[in-house]
Structure formats: C-alpha cells, structure tokens
Amino acid sequence: MERDEVLPVLYDLAVTIGSEISVKPLLTRTLQRLLYHTSFSAGFICLDVPECADADGEIEVRLDAVVGDFDLLGLIGRPVVLPCALLSHLAGRETDQAALLSSLRCTLTQYKSFLRLPLGQGGVIVLLAAEIPETTLPLTTMLQPVLEHLAKAIVLCRNNEAYTSGLLAQRYKLEEVFESSYSGVMITDAQANIVETNPAFTRITGFSPEEVRGRDPRMLSSGLHDHGFYSEMWNGILKDGHWEGEVLNRRKTGEVYPCWLTINQVRDKAGELLNYVGMISDISQRKEAEAQIHQLAFYDSLTGLPNRRLLVERLLQSFSQGARNGRHGAVLLLDLDGFKAINDTKGLETGDQLLVETGKRLKDCVSDGDTVARLGGDEFVVVLDALSERTEEAAAQADKAAELIRVELSRPYQLDGHVIHTTPSIGVVLFRGHQQSLDDVLKHVDAAMYQAKKAGRNTIRFYDPEMQAAMEARADLEEDLRHALELNQLQLYFQVQVDSRSRPLGAEALLRWQHPERGLISPASFIPLAEETGLIVPIGQWVLRSACEQLKRWQHDAVLRDLTVAVNVSARQFRQPDFVIQVQRDLIGSGAKPSMLKLELTESTVLENVEDTIARMGELKLLGLSFSMDDFGTGYSSLQYLKRLPLDQIKIDQSFVRDIASDPNDAAIVQTIIAMSEVLGLNVIAEGVETEDQREFLDRRGCHAFQGFLFGRPLPLREFEAQLKV
Ligand code: C2E
Ligand code: MG
Ligand code: MG
C-alpha cells in the first residue's frame, strides 16, 4: 500500500465502522475491510483480553470476530487458548512471529506473520498472513485514528445491545401481548432506530422485522405531513415523554393509510432514556366507515351531490367568509320545468338519469369551489362565493352564472334513446355575511324561484325586498284566513241578476271577509290564497250551506221566494270526493228547493278533468240544481266540451262586456257567445253590466239576463233585501 492510498482506506474504514449499530457486524465488517486493504489473509478480534501474567505463556480468550480462517470461524464465541505474545505487546519481547504462529493449535493454516492492533480497554485485533507482508508503512500508527473510532463504536454498540437485551428481558413477560397485539408495536433504541417490531406491525406496514431493524421510523411516513407536524410530535415526546395522534403513513406497497400513533419513552430507574415504543393502529377501515356514513348523511345518493344538510353547512361557511371579506355570495334555486310530466311519461328511470345529468351540467357550469346541491325532487341549489363587494356588480355576476346555467340546462338531453327537452326556472338571492338569516335566504330564494315559474318558466328571477314584503303580507293573510271562519269574519253579499225589464231573477252570492284591521277584503285577494292552502274547502262548504239556508228563508217571503241563488264553486272544492254528498246534505239539511240553487263553475275547473266533471255534474243535476259557466270566454271555450257538459247557463265575462260598445272585437266575441248558447240550448247572462248602452247592446243581440252595478252592487243581506222590496 502506497502512502497516497492511505486516506481513502481510512475513510472507508471509518464509514464502515460508523454504519454499524451492533457489535458483531461491526467487528466482522471492520475486519473484512482491514483485510481488503492490506495483504493479510485472515484475522480475529478479541474484545476482552485479560492481563497476561506470564509473557511467554498462554491465555484463554474468547474470539469475538473472525474473518478468513475456517478453523477459527468455528470457534467464535468460545474460549480459545492463545499465546500471550500474540495478544499483547506488553506481554514481552518481540519474538519470531513465524515461530510463535507455528505453535497455534486452533487453526491448521500455517501463518508466518501477524499484525497486532490494540483496541483499548483490553481489546485487540490480530491480522494473520501466510507470507511476511511487504509494507513500507507503519500500519499500526497509520490505523490509529480508525482504531480509536472503532473502540468508541464498540462501546456504543455494546451499550446499545445491553439496553436492548435488558428491554427484551423486560419484554419477555409481555411477549405474548406483543406478539398477539392487534396494534402494530415498534420498539426503537434511544436514538430512535427500530430494534423490534411485532407481527401486527408487519401486517399493517408490510415491512418484516428484518427490513426495518436498525432503521429510522421515518421510513414509514407518507411524506404528506410537513416538517412542522413532526417537530410538534417530537416536542411532545421530549416534553411529556408521550405523544399520540393521527398520522398518515405509507405501507410498503406505497399505499397511504391513516393510523393512530402512540409514542412513549421508556426510561430506566435512573431516568436514562432506553427506548421509544410506538403503537400503530390502522384506522383506515374506521375512516372508510366514517367516510361512508358521511357520504350517506351529507350527500344525495342519486346524484352524489351535497344534500340539504351539507348545503346548510356550506351556506353558513359562505356567510362567515362573506362577513370576513366583505364580498357578496349568491344562492340559486332551480327547478326543472315539467319534470313531473317527464317522469310520468318517460318513466322514473329516465327521470333519474335526467337528474344525474342535470347535476353534472350544473357542476360544469360553476367553479370548483362553488357548491351544487340537490334538495330532492328536481330542485337543485347552487351557491356562488366571492362575488363582488358592490351589490349591482355582484347581481350582474350572479345573473351571468344563472344565465349560463339556464342555457346549459335547456340543451336537449340524450337519455337512453330518448331526447328530452326541459328548461329550468331559477330564483336568485344575493347575500353578504350574516345580514340575512339562513332561513330568510332560503325563503327568499324560494320566493324568487316561484316568481320565475310564474313568469313563464325558463326564466331567472331575483329576489327583491318588495317581493318579500308582498310574500310576508301573504303569509300574514294566510294565518288570519285560517281563523276567519271560526271568528265569524266571513259574510255573504248578494248581487242581483235581472231580466230585460230589470225584474229580479236571482242573486249571486259573493263572499266578503270582514277583517278586524284591514276592513273588507275582496274575494279576489283571498280566494286564490284559500285555494292554494286548501282553506277553500271549509270556506266553500260554509258558503254553500249559508246560501242554502238563505234560500230556505226566502221561500217564506212573497217577494224573494222566486229568486235563484248562484254560488261560486272553486275547482278544489268541486273535486272533493264527497262534494256531491255535501251539496245533497246542505239541500236536505236546509230544506231549500234544489231548483233555486245554481252552481257557478269556471272553464278551468271544468277542463281539469272533463270526464269526471261530466259525471259529477250529472249526479248533481239529479238533485235538481242547475249550472252556470262563469267567466265564459276567458278560457279555452270549445264547442267540443261545451256540447257534452250538462250546463244550463253561460255567463259572459265582464271583460267583454266592458268595451262591448267601443271594441268591435269584444262585440264580435259576445255575439258569438250568444249565438253559440242559442245553438246549444243554453240561456245566457252577462255580468259586469254598468251602463245602459251595454245593457241595450246585449239585449238587442239576444242576451236578456244581466248582472252588474247598473242594477245593483253586491250588498249585505239586509240591504239586498231592502233593495228588492222598494
Ligand atoms: P265572479 O264570480 O265572476 O263574480 C263577479 C265579480 O264581479 C264580483 O266580484 C262582483 O262584485 C263583480 N261585479 C259585479 N258587477 C260588476 C260591475 O258592474 N262592474 C265590475 N267592475 N265588477 C262587477 P267579487 O265579489 O270581488 O268576486 C270576485 C270573484 O271572487 C268572483 O268572480 C268569484 O270568482 C270569486 N268568489 C266570490 N265569492 C266566492 C265564493 O263564495 N266562492 C268562490 N269559490 N269564489 C268566490
Ligand atoms: Mg261568479
Ligand atoms: Mg264572473
């Protein structure tokens, strides 16, 4: 070996020594490297050489490591008797190396020379060669730094192993628990290098004990936590001796999994740190179950979109976000026009597909951060965040998004061979921070959507406060209407119907609501509300019963006994399954003459279900009453069905009567209606007659019955009676 080759050799040796953590491999590897770099062919190491009493004598030692000699190899760990002069230079004078070696009984190889390298604390390395090596270098001196390094490494490794074996002894009792534990257990030394793992650890991580022994537990990490996460973990361990928490680790297969990691320090009685014990519980299954439950609880199963519950959560988040950054957000509520019809005609499956496809299109219309939720049925909600701080601009942005959605959802859908056309009605409401409550926002957007529907569908409508005021008034009115009947606030007014000579023929019963604060409320304002809420049913029953009772009372009055009473019947009331029976009961109960009772139906009521209408009217007619077709001309007047209905009278709507003298169109319509009723054998009456001109015009054209302010306004009972008795 030349001088300039020395440094790399030292370096190699130092690295070899530094990379071992247990004594045995440390010694063996060091020996191997020494032999490799020198011309010695074998060597051994004894770590604990006792003092030599007799320099020329022999001594019993234990071989801790052997390389290059098969005979010696077999003796590792066992006592061997060697010459003192071979092991310790302090032992005596330099003897002839070859002679000394020839006396070795423990090997058959004839060695001629040796090199003794002292290790300190009674240890020695002996290198053996069959020839006298030719080296110009003082090897002992040269290797001195490495040998010192090795001596220290040996001490460290021995300590290490002592701790470990101590721990293992301690653990012996816990062996069974360790082996059978469901949690993965990993024990490290004080430097946090893995010493031992249990079967569950292998099951969870995929690494066998051999693969991890001596390695840093960092090899298990997923790389998904940042530096701060681990420094916090270590701070906890060093401060409290304990840390636990959820960690994302990576299995040998590369799969990342969540686990619950508990780390404890183990110290000996003196407080010296011995080990760390880590327990790993794989919680991926629990997490999966949690995720599944979360999915069920917060997502719609058909479309996979967030459901109402998650929507509420997201909205509250958006409110908070808006409160922080001052920006507006928007909620869009949309409903597919005619979805029910598609469901009914094309089948539920197609309906479902349409909803799924709608969800997809909606998601494509918005950015990733925006929420698209399904409320159920064909109702979807989109939440837009981070719109402008300025209201008008935010409204424009929301409008643009809504328009994009409107166009996208109006494109035909190709579903299972069907081409489906639908359009959305979209309600929009802006919000900013917590200015409005969640309830209000949802209520407002509902109102806006309803407006969009009313505006003819395929439309976008913004919620505005005026609209809200109207909605609230409506809600109040509804609440009051619920109690109107029991509080006796409803009243019947009567408006006279006359013939060509202005003689009374009958009266129309018209409902009035005497509201304690609002005064007299017209039926035009509350009948639609009553229809929507279903309150029309009890109200209508009351009207019918009251009218019948009135008829009965008039029967005893010479002036009034020939008056018919016309009662308006709403669609919902007419469709009640027991409507016919109710009418019968009212007639019988009151004792009124059925021929004096006239029921007014509108075209839309009649048309809702023509067959049922015909059947029902037929039954009612058997009771002896008659029918008038109210507001005639405003609907789909068609001879087709008129012919089939058992009607008695047609009532020309007041809108035609109003301009009858000035609008030739209206005049023509009225004339046609009159002609038609003649053909059908029906009598005809005109309502809303206010002027003599109108009366005359109608009379000349063949309409000889009239109702209108010209003859009398709707009046309360007493006034009506008084009017007829003058
Ligand atoms: P309708 O059945 O067409 O009743 C005629 C309406 O025209 C009445 O309005 C009446 O006051 C009004 N009217 C009568 N003559 C004239 C006139 O010369 N000029 C003008 N401008 N108007 C005239 P009212 O009483 O406000 O009732 C409105 C509607 O409310 C009724 O229209 C009817 O559809 C409904 N309604 C009234 N009472 C009841 C009821 O008891 N049950 C049901 N279901 N609906 C009712
Ligand atoms: Mg009427
Ligand atoms: Mg009418």
Overview of this structure, please?
The structure is a single chain. The termini are far apart. It contains 29 helices and 28 strands. The protein is rod-shaped. The chain folds into four domains: 170 residues, GAF domain (Beta-Lactamase, 2-Layer Sandwich), CATH 3.30.450.40; 106 residues, PAS domain (Beta-Lactamase, 2-Layer Sandwich); 165 residues, Reverse transcriptase/Diguanylate cyclase domain (Alpha-Beta Plaits, 2-Layer Sandwich); 245 residues, TIM Barrel. Helix 14 packs across helix 15. An eight-stranded mixed β-barrel has the order 19-20-22-23-24-25-26-27, surrounded by five helices. It has a five-stranded antiparallel β-sheet with strand order 8-7-11-10-9.
Number of domains: 4
Give the class-level CATH name of the largest domain.
Answer: Alpha Beta
**Record field, number of beta strands:** 28
Number of helical segments? 29
Unreliable sequence segments: none
Please describe the topology of this protein.
Layout: H1 6-18, H2 23-37, E1 42-46, E2 58-62, E3 65-67, H3 70-73, E4 79-83, H4 84-87, H5 97-102, E5 113-120, E6 123-129, H6 139-142, H7 144-172, H8 175-180, E7 184-188, E8 194-197, H9 199-205, H10 209-212, H11 227-240, E9 242-250, E10 256-267, E11 273-282, H12 284-298, H13 308-325, E12 329-336, H14 339-346, H15 348-365, E13 371-376, E14 379-384, H16 391-410, E15 413-415, E16 418-420, E17 424-431, H17 438-454, E18 460-462, H18 465-484, E19 490-499, E20 504-515, E21 519-521, H19 523-533, H20 536-554, E22 564-568, H21 571-574, H22 579-590, E23 597-602, H23 603-608, H24 610-623, E24 626-632, H25 639-642, E25 649-652, H26 654-658, H27 664-680, E26 683-687, H28 692-701, E27 705-707, E28 715-716, H29 717-725
Parallel strand pairs: 17-18, 20-22, 22-23, 23-24, 24-25, 25-26, 26-27
Antiparallel strand pairs: 1-3, 1-6, 2-4, 5-6, 7-8, 7-11, 9-10, 10-11, 12-14, 12-17, 13-14, 15-16, 19-20, 19-27, 19-28, 20-21
The protein binds ligand C2E and magnesium ion (MG) (2 copies).
